[in-house]
Amino acid sequence: QQRSGGGATRFKEHLAHRGNDAKDCPSVPAEVKKFFIEQLDKNKERARARARDKLLRDAAARAPHIDLDPEEEEGHGQGQFDEDAAIRTGGSHVRGSGAGGGARPLPSMFTRSQSHVPERVRDYHFGLSSAPVQQRIDTGPWTVKGRTSRELIGRAWAKACHAIGIPGQKIDDPYFKAAIMETQKQGVGIKIPSGREIDGKEIDGKYLDENVKEIEKEIEKWNMEWDECGVTLMCDSWTGPMRNSVINFLVYSGGTMYFLKSIDATDKVQDHQYLLKEIKAVVLKVGYENVVQVVTDNGSNYKKACELLVEEYPHIAWQPCLAHTINLMLKDIGKWDEHAACIKSAQDICSWLYNSNSLHSMMRQAIGGELVKWNATRFGTNYMFLESMFKKKDQFMVWLMSPEFRRTRHFNTEMGRYAFDCMTRLEWWDNVEWVINDVEPLYMFLRFADSDKIPNLSEVTMDYQNMRQTYASKFATDKARFDRIMKESHRIS
């Protein structure tokens, strides 16, 4: 009798009496056996469906000029699918296909993750815009006609973009490219869809509704995987330019994040009781048994609400947003006496420099640019501002000591004398540098956590350890300063 290891899949095969590499369980109850047979069949069908969808998308991308009827499309895809299914999805009862199989490559846990569109989210238009296009002989870029045509198209697009206020970089959007390619494919004489009210608002009406239905159908497919992959529920409050307050809920499951619902909370007090009620309603809508964790910011109202939620559903974990946690750490560090005094002094000087058009113009010319302004709720920007000012230290000192500045009316004002006294003393700049050194590794960690490229947990752990090591080497001779910083950083661990 051959013995071999295995994982969850082989254990299911053992209970279901399925597979060549798993011995049938002699004492499994009939209802348990039936349940796992259905689970194995369901998993196999899902894998085949995903592979079939991928094949059809790839076929559309390779040959965007061919329109297949639904029956032709099914026949075209099924033959190739049956031929390659074992290679692409792996056999259902083949050694190494289970969770404990040894034939799979190791995951790239310690490589930098890249932002990308998951394959199952890439619809027909994504495939169309990225598919290779065969050049025509008479209009290729090597011909005079081809070069002239490209110039004419470029000028027409530029006029349109500039007339209606679309930034030029937006034409690189895959959906815009797909729309142009679809227009070329349909040829001359087709009436262009209208966005005017008089014509029924086709773009923002009929076709918008069709696109919404298409997305809803895709989301319904993804929702079927909630019980298999689990769900991470994300919740965040947002205040718009009109001071309206909105709470957004997003779902992450199976490698895809998508919008679930939005709540207008403008007339509500967003205390922990209100947030608990709304979060719990979404958890029940998704299915509390499917929710693995809830991610929110680290505000006291969200923290209290999620603690009560976890008490009611112990299997759900609450995870505060990493970037928001670091931002609050920088807020607390900014309240230290030496930090608060330095930040306030620099901000007062900056406000004075920007309050006068003539003074602002002189400063910009003297230092060769602008200063990075701070944001009231992004506390890390206080240190971005200090760093931008410190980088221009030499230019500021030369300018403020120059006869040109000292002859202006700004020099003799109260704030002018204060700015001159501060920014021409090396001690003031040393204090700025000292404050920046306190938070530089932590701020770099914030930039990592708040980047567009989504890091995985192992990357976060490694970057956090790198931050601690940087502090240890930076403050090797100042243990008290190191311990003070580490006391704040323990929120992350």
Automatic annotation (TrEMBL):
Pfam families: DUF659 (PF04937). Residues 10-24 have a biased composition (Basic and acidic residues). Residues 1-26, 89-108 are annotated as: Disordered. Residues 201-349 form the DUF659 domain. This is DUF659 domain-containing protein. It comes from Paspalum notatum var. saurae.
